[in-house]
Amino acid sequence: MRGVKVLESTYPIAPKGLGTAFTETEVPIEYCTLLRNRYINAAGGAEKRQGIAQLGSTISGGPTITGIHELIKPDGTAILLASAAGRIYRYDDPAWTQVYTGLDTSAVVRSVQMNERRIFVNGVDRNIFTKDGATYSE
Q1: Does this model's pTM top 0.90?
Q2: pLDDT in tens, 3-45
Q3: Are 71 and 78 in contact, with CB atoms under 8 Å apart?
């Protein structure tokens, strides 16, 4: 295509963030219709989404992690746990240690903390809990 002039233009990041209260054709220039690599912060502004990095070494066997859990002990100490393929792992810097096995391998493990107990459920097996991240009981 000879003689065609290419025009380029740039727009600053929309200062008012995502405009969801407008129809697609009526969005003011101060808003955007789509955010990429941004998230809405607590103040309502659009912030750049930060990258992620692997924590510790790869879990033995390389299972697909389906849950991350955190046990907060009464003294404020936090213990990071992960669940995958019917197993629970504890983060012992710099490695992950398997601390529980025997759950259904196809069910996703979810958890909630009640007082000093982290309770794990998957909808198939009996619920289990831990107070220290090392010992588990029904």
Answers
A1: no
A2: 777 766 666 667 776 677 777 778 787 877 777 777 777 877 7
A3: yes
Q: Sign of the CA dihedral 73, 119, 68, 136?
A: positive
Q: Do residues 64 and 56 lie in contact, with contact meaning Cβ atoms separated by under 8 Å?
A: no
Task: Count CB-CB contacts under 10 A for residue 31.
Answer: 17
Q: Cα-flanking dihedrals φ and ψ of residue 33, to 5°?
A: -100, -15
Can you tell me whether residue 32 is helix, strand or coil?
strand
Provide the 3-class DSSP secondary structure of residue 25: helix
Write the CB contacts of 87 (distance below 8 Å, at least 6 apart in sequence): 63, 98, 100, 101, 103
Length of the chain: 138
